[in-house]
Amino acid sequence: MKICAIRLQNIRRFTEAVEITGIGPGLNVLAAPNEQGKSTIFDALHAVFFKDAKSWDKEIRALAPRAGGEPRIEVEIDRDGTRYRLVKQFQKASGKGEIRIWQGDTLYLQSDAAEAWLQDLIKSPKDGGPAGLLWVRQGLTDFADAKETLSARQDLLSSITGEVDAVTGGQRMDAIRRDLRQSLDRLVTSRGAKKGGALDLAATEVAQLQADEQRLQARVQELRSQLDQRRALRAELAGLQEADTQQELEARMQAARQALAAAERYQEKLDTSAAAVKTARLIKENHQSTVQGLRARQQEHMAALAECEQAQSDVAEVATRLTPAEQRLRECLAQSAADQDALRQAEVLLARVQRAAVEAQEQAQRQTLSKTVAQARAAQAQVTELTQQARQGPDRKAMDRIEAAREALGLAEQAQHLAAPAITVTYEAGQEGRLRLDGQAVAAGERLSLPRGGQIEALGLGRIALHPGQATTSDQLAVKQAELAAALAYADCAEVAEARARHRSREEAAIRLQQADVQLQALAPEGLLALINQLDSLGEHDSLEERAAEGAASAQPPEPPELPERTTVEADLSRCRAAMDQSSAALEAARAQEATLRLGFEGANVRHQAAQQRLERAKAALAGEVDAAVSLAVLEQQATALQEELNQAQAQLELLQQAAPDLAAVQARVVRAKSAQEAVMSRLQELGRDLAVLDTRIGTTAGEAVEEELAEVSDQLLAAQDRLAAVEFEVAVLRRLDLALDQARSAAQEAYVAPVLKELQPLLRHLWPDAQLQVDADRVLPHHLHRDTGGGEDFESLSGGTQEQIALLVRLAFARLLARSGEAAPVILDDAIVYTDDARIERLFDALTLQSSDLQILVFTCRQKSFRALGGTQLAIRSVQTA
Amino acid sequence: MSTFRFLHCSDLHLGKRFGRFPEETRIALQQARQQIVAGLAAVAQAHAAEHVLIAGDMFDTETPSERVLRQALAAMRAASDLHWWIIPGNHDSAAAETLWASLAEHAPPNVHLLMWSEVVQMAPGVQLLPAPCRHRFAGQDLTQWMDAAETPTGDLRIGLAHGGVLDFGSDEAGGETIAPDRARSARLDYLALGDWHGTFTLDARSRYSGTPEADRFKHAGRGQALLVELSSVGQDPKVEAIETGALHWQDLSLDLTPAADAGALLRAQLPSDRPGWHQHLLQIRAQGWITAPQRLALQQVIAEVGPEFCFFHLDETGLRSEHQVEDLDLIATNGALRVAAEDLLQAAEDTALAQVERDVASAALNRLFAYGQEMTASAACSAEAET
User: Fold this and answer.
1) For helices A170-187 and B355-386, what crossing angle results, to 10°?
2) Ramachandran quadrant class, B129 (left: phi over 0; alpha: psi -120 to 50; beta: rest)
3) How far is A779 from chain B (nearest CA, A)?
């Protein structure tokens, strides 16, 4: 958008219509002295774009002339190549103001639609952007506090501050948030309600009241319950105290007692009847036992009598059998004695026969033994002799020594023979035997050794003495010879041959001795002496037997000279023994039979005696009974009568029992009636006590006005809950507002801070090629100017001129940002450059000129002279009529 | 016989604590209640009525404090020329044995406690037919017995009962039991009714006196008692309502629109006798839609006048905020504050959100508006001070 012309009527001093026309697309300058209406034009521009035509507020009223009249503002604008004429007529009468937008001579829009179009026109490129503020009066910030506003009028920086504030919420937002936070801090902490804060107090109050209410409800409930209880108790008490109740209880008691008395009387009758039955039964039972006793005694007597007779008969019968048995026993004894005599005689005869046989055998034995003793004695003598012979001559050891010595001597002689000089003679034919050695002819060809020398006699020729030269060999030979001699001496032999012969004799004697020993051993295995003793003993037996025979012969009659055959005797003996065995068996049988019968006889006698005693006792028991059978018949008749009496008594008892009242039940009834009476009395006492206690409790509670207190507390609780809800709502509201503000500021900073800084940097370099401006990123405000030539200064320390130049550039950066977003807005500077010196103003003008190539800039200034150099389109306020 | 004149009242609810009200208001309410017996005595005496009929609910609960009970009796004793005829109501029913025993124990001879439904002679030629509430919830028409009750021919018959009328209603839920034509069916010359806290005429002979000292906004104005004059049997009574209450209760509604001058409308509703405001309890139920500036204006008026009242409460639950673009402009035309305001406005109007969230957002926006106004006012003051 670009402003092309402005027309005002009834705006402060301009009661008549004035206009500024020919506003160019780039740099425009309205240079006029003070009080010429430059600020009025600004205010009018602000009103036309920001105030609803229908409004008549302070700002609009301030535009109206003192003399009266209703402001009319007309602005021609170019939007995307199309020219629009915007007319706002404010009117004092509420809601009567008008807006019209013309496109050429055609009414394009009016009223609300026109306002909406206008809103869209001045709308910030993004929500919350700087929007139209760029082209309203420098330094004017609608909502900043008064001081800020005033200072904002004083320099451009302050206006930038206001602008940035507008974008980010700035100090106003800071103040609001500070207040919000303080309010929240008074109510809550990060952990919940702040102790002692309104929220905490409200919550505590609610909790306290809830507890109170519960407590009081419980007390009221308790009171009500006590009242109910008391009513119930009183009703019960009244019921119990009623005369009817008492009488009924008494009547019930009386009836029960009467019933009990009647029952007790009946019981007595029952007892009497039962006693009668019992007596009749006893009599009958006694009678029965009498009958039974008599009957038993009678039976016993008869049994005893029978038993006695039987016993007597048994005795007689046994006696008849006993006598022949005794006779038989005597006969058997006689037979047995006879048989025993015959047997003894047979045995004596057999003994004699046997003795004779033994004697004959012993005689034969004696003869054989005598012969053997004689042979044994001869063998004994031979042994003695051979033993003597076997000790003669060298034994094996001595013989071995001799043989060894002889062998050693032989070896020594052989050695000497070999070592000694030897001769071998060879005879001339015909000369044989002519040489003699030591006197003996020497055979031809025989080598003769001469260890001891010798003397050879050559017959016919002389003698030759030979002398042995080797002594040593001779010594050894001598030793050997000595040893042989010693051995021979030891054996008491002169020659080896003798020794050998004698040794052979000794060996042969030993063999024969061995044979003789064997023979002796066979003859007398236990030695000769034992054999002799045996023989001697046989000879003694003979003498004993002879003595016995002699003794017997003196006592016994002389034996028949001839004895029968042994076999005959033995056969007789056997026969006698068999007869003896037979008679013994018969005797034993007879004895056994006699003993058995005698025992039976004695037993029968004993039984007979016992039966007689039993019979005596039975008779004694029956003594007095004249006639037992008659007595029994009488007694049985009496028993029938007694049974009849018993039956009658029992029938009467049963009748009584059937009609008997239940005594226990009647007694229980009495107990119950009594207990009921007592229970009523006890309950009456209890009720009295309980009622007294309840009265006291109720009196206490009721006097404390608990229900009123409960009603009050319940009401208070409702109010407190409302208050708590209100405080909680307040917390929610504060938090919500805080959140909205926080988000809005963050969004604004994100949307504008970085982009504006980016636009600002090239502008800064234009004015200070050697310096860098540091900007407070949070507030988008310059705070430090750093110069490459050295050092730097905080923004507040910079000169007023530098400050306003920087501020102007920041403003231009905003404008550039808008232009880039396609919503270029005019930049209007109202007496913005005040402190800048002439040298620096040139650069500033350069910057403005440069920017005006694509930005519409309107400069209003009272420094006509200084701004002449700025160039640009020169504007003027003209009366419309003039124009 | 000469005319018979008496004062008919009911529902004194002595001992009521008014817990929902702020402390200062409660004290005033309690004091006014406790003085009402003396006030009634004065009215009766001033109008030459020798009898005061209390148609139930003399006490607010079945267990009033000794102080409340004894002071009431003391006031009755003090008016020794008057006869007080009292029946138990549902709040202080005869089931409250302790209460009635205590009353019987301490009551002076001029106080008549009517505990049974039986004819009592008030004065020669005047028979009283009381229908005391035996229990908190009667569950039956306690006046039924009156139809068959015999009284000497030519005597006045006055019924005294407590409870709602079948086709009319009660101040207590489920309390509607009394036959509406009881006065006719029981040949009563007057039926003095209690339970309804406002004065109400059922027919020429059946009336509710209402409470002599109002206790709720439901029945506007001051409490009243009825001065009844009976001339002869069968004649309609002459009844005069006499204001007895000290405190004036009023419940107003204030309908607002975004265009209205809320402050002015509120002022227009206020009672005219400003010096008497300290005896006024005023509850204003505002409803409709208002803008943030209107809300501010309302709050300013309340802050100005509220403290002068015995009780003043603006109920804003029916009041919804309408946020207008102009209002947002007053916060900020652009920038982050504007964004925040628009965010809150959007949330307040977003039907997709829960109502409570919308309410919170709306209130937050109002608060932001208030901040804005506060700062602007502050800025203006500072500016004026500097210039």
Assistant:
1) 120
2) beta
3) 12
In contact, B86 and B54? CB cutoff 8 Å? yes
For A1-123+831-883, CATH number out of 1.10.520.20, 1.10.10.10, 1.10.443.10, 3.40.50.300 equals 3.40.50.300
B positions 56-115 inside 8 Å of A (CB)? 60-66, 68, 95-99, 102
Q: What is the pTM of this model?
A: 0.49
Same domain flag for B188 and B206: yes
Closest of B261, B252, B325 to residue B287, by C-alpha: B252
Between the alpha carbon of residue A162 and those of residues A144, A166, A738, A817, B273, the distances in Å are 7, 6, 22, 17, 50
Instruction: Give the ipTM of the model, two decimals please.
Output: 0.72
Indicate which CATH number applies to the domain containing B90.
Answer: 3.60.21.10
Residues B238 and B360 in one domain: no
A737 vs B17, B62, B368: nearest CB: B368
Residue B95 and residue B29 share a domain: yes
Exposed/middle/buried for residue A412 (C-beta within 10 Å: 0-12, 13-18, 19+): buried
Residues in B touching A179 (Cβ below 8 Å): 371
Among the candidates B289, B321, B353, a domain finishes at B321
Other C-beta atoms closer than 10 Å to the C-beta of A741 total: 26
The answer to whether the beta carbons of residues B369 and B330 sit under 8 Å apart is yes
Q: Decide: A474 and A452 in contact? Cβ < 8 Å.
A: yes
Domain check: are B336 and B303 in the same one? no
Instruction: Note whether B329 and B364 are same-domain residues.
Output: yes
Residues B34 and B54 both lie in one domain? yes
CA distances from A649 to A270, A652, B235 (A): 11, 5, 96
Token pair, residue A462, equals 């002389």
Locate A496 and state its tokens.
């080896």
Task: Please state the φ and ψ torsions of residue B127, each to the nearest 5 degrees.
Answer: -110, 135
User: Are residue B270 and residue B308 in the same domain, yes or no?
Assistant: yes
Please list every residue in chain B whose beta carbon sits closer than 8 Å to the beta carbon of residue A145. Answer: 375, 378-379, 382
Contacting residues for A397 by C-beta, under 8 A, at least 6 apart: none
Residues 6+ apart with CB under 8 A from A402: A394, A484, A487, A488, A491, A493, A496, A499
Domain count, chain B: 3
Domain holding B336, by residue range, is 323-387
Closest listed residue to residue A417, CA positions, set A473, A475, A484, A467: A473
Q: Half-sphere exposure (CA, 13 Å, Cβ side) for B37?
A: 27
Q: Can you tell me the distance from the alpha carbon of A200 to that of A186, in angstroms, rounded to the nearest whole number?
A: 10
Instruction: Select from B17, B66, B375 the Cβ nearest to the Cβ of A711.
Output: B17
**Are B315 and B284 in contact, with CB atoms under 8 Å apart?**
yes
Q: What is the pLDDT along chain B (387 residues), one digit of tens a residue?
A: 579 999 999 999 999 989 889 989 999 999 999 999 999 999 999 999 999 999 999 999 888 888 999 999 999 999 999 999 999 999 999 988 889 999 999 999 999 999 999 999 999 999 999 999 988 777 788 999 999 999 999 999 999 999 988 766 667 666 668 998 999 999 999 999 999 999 999 999 999 999 999 999 988 999 999 999 999 998 999 999 999 999 999 999 998 888 888 899 899 989 999 999 999 999 999 988 888 888 888 889 999 999 999 999 998 888 887 777 777 777 777 677 888 888 898 998 899 999 899 989 988 988 888 887 777 666 666 555 544
> Where do the H-state alpha helices sit in A556-565?
none
Alpha-carbon distance of B16 to A676, in angstroms, equals 50
The token pair at A711 is: 């009603």
Please answer whether residues A785 and A801 qualify as being in contact, where contact means their C-beta atoms are separated by less than 8 angstroms.
Answer: no
Identify the closest residue of chain B to A228 by CA–CA distance: B95
